[in-house]
Amino acid sequence: MPRKDIRNKQDLAIHGAPPAFDQPLHVGRPNIFDQQAFLTHVARILDSRWLTNDGPTVQAFEHRLASYLGVKHCVAMCNGTIALEIAIRALGLTGEVIVPSWTFVATAHALHWQGITPVFADIDPATHNLDPDAVRRMLTPRTTGIIGVHLWGRAAPVDELQNISDQHGVKLMFDAAHAFGSSYKGQPVGRFGCCETFSFHATKAFNTFEGGAVATNDDKLAETMRLMRNFGFKGYDKVIHPGTNGKMIEVCAAMGLANLDHFDTVVAINKRHHNDYRDALKGIHGVNLLRFDPNENNSYHYVVIEVDRGFPVSRDDIVAALHAENILARKYFWPGCHNMQPYRALFPHAGLLLPHTQAVADRVIVLPNGNSLPEGAIDTIAAVIAQLADR
Ligand code: T4K
Is the distance from the beta carbon of residue 372 to the nearest atom of ligand 1 less than 6 Å? Predict the structure, then answer.
């Protein structure tokens, strides 16, 4: 069926002005629950005059995280990107490291920033995660590591990637930025590969304003990362390692402690919304909600829909129609890292080896979720899309 050419809001003409929502509905609206619990922590921090540098709140947060994830060590960081950079460096990765292109650009940047070449491998279109066969095809004598990404909170194929890592003597780590609270084969994410990095950015299901952490069961690796996040200091006056400033501040850890108490509620709300989206979108031919394995944990933070080529209007027109109604849907992670700079200039032909990444990038829309989503919003969002389907 030929697609309609949509140029402006009149063409869209879903409800006419004004938009369906007075206030914008954001993807990644922070989940905020108990303000008082957070403010109590902050008052204690201010009274103590200990604001950063591995303070007691960060230490308490790290212990809570480690026990929540069931790992020996959780090293809190100022954000998920620095967590990636420090983990990559602490593992001694060099040369080439295989990553998906279908991820937030921070995964690739954390390598490039350190003079390491990200080599993009294609994904399984059914899961949006790395395809192990594609990873095997990208191995070269310069490969030192693989970074699997648990995209949308769905665990990457951990066992298959670990087999490749073992067979070829390359290190394996995971970017678990989306996967706080997720599981793989019933085991919490955080323990797989050499280490796993988390992001606690404001837009994540679990947030500390900005923040991140690396989880690992490796004592030596944890010790190295603790040194690296604090300029390599071991006690006063003694620097024994190269390092940077990757420290989480006390107020961020306070937000983490306050939010951790409500994380299960966030997951329950998100999961309910997911089911509501599934029901509301069910009758719309050509729009499919990405489902997660019901036997695994997932925060259900990301509501990802895929638009078939046969849908009467393009993916971008659906996004435009939603935006016209103040529903600020996103095209995460279009156009794929390999089409962003500097990678597009460095590897202009990378897309030839990434057919599934290219196809998925052209059909994905991420919809709003979380505890600030107004009552009835999901039905309205589905109605906007449904009316485009009928055009
Ligand atoms: N690896 C992966 C796989 C990741 O997804 C990320 C981050 C990282 C690594 C790196 O972790 P961090 O270094 O960021 O800790 C956002 C986030 O900034 C980023 O953390 C996240 N992934 C990515 C998926 O989304 P943008 O550029 O889309 O952010 P922005 O400013 O457009 O905000 C997103 C939406 O959230 C907007 O609609 C507005 C809304 N929003 C945002 C903020 C900050 C709010 O409502 N309140 C807020 O406070 O990257």
Answer: no
Cβ(81) – ligand 1 distance below 6 Å: yes
Place of tokens 């719309």: 284
Q: Which atom of ligand 1 is nearest to the CA of 26?
A: 38
Across the 391 residues of the chain, what is the mean pLDDT of every consecutive 10-residue run? 43 64 94 94 98 97 98 98 98 98 98 98 98 98 98 98 98 98 98 98 98 98 98 96 98 98 97 98 96 97 96 97 97 98 97 98 97 95 94 67
Structure tokens at 65: 């995280």
200 alpha carbon to ligand 1 midpoint, in Å? 10
Domains and CATH numbers, the chain: 9-27+263-329+368-389 (3.90.1150.10), 35-260 (3.40.640.10)
3-state secondary structure 124-179: CCCCCCECHHHHHHHCCCCEEEEEEECHHHCCCCHHHHHHHHHHHCCEEEEECCCC
197 lines ligand 1 (CB under 6 A): no
| Residue 362 one-letter amino acid | D
Instruction: Single out the residue of 168, 111, 160 nearest to residue 140, CA to CA.
Output: 168
In DSSP notation, 203-249 reads TSSS--SS-EEEEES-HHHHHHHHHHTBTTB-STT-B-S---B-PPP
For residue 202, report the distance from its CA to the centre of ligand 1, in Å: 7
Determine whether the shortest distance from the Cβ of 323 to ligand 1 is under 6 A. no
CB 28 less than 6 A from any atom of ligand 1? yes
* The model scores a pTM over 0.90: yes
CB 79 within 8 A of CB 212: yes
